[in-house]
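chain below, 112 aa
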Amino acid sequence: MIRLALVAALLATPVYAAEKKEKSCKYQGQVMAAVQQARLDRVKQADVSQTILASNPSWPDQYSKAIPQLTAHVYSLRKRDLRDTDLGALMEQQCLENWDQIQKMKKQLQSN
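prediction:
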């Protein structure tokens, strides 16, 4: 469920060489959690990016590029399933677990 959104978010988010995977994964989890909260707060799908950005999130700006992809994923899920699942924590965990594989995919895409 989260894996597809994770890949989309990581590919949409530039990762700088000096950035540690823990920090990057933490930010990605925060973005996912914000999108999930917007859905639970009944924010219209078309307004999610604007609503989140208006709250002045604490993550670096480049992570906001993943909001549209994550929004599409989160809004495709049933709301009752979102109440019992912490998508932000899942996103962060899967990011950490799959970091090397995803970085390899990004390098392959950049070389094509």
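Helices lie at 2-12, 21-40, 48-54, 67-75, 79-83, 87-111. The two ends are 28 Å apart (CA to CA).
thats it, cya
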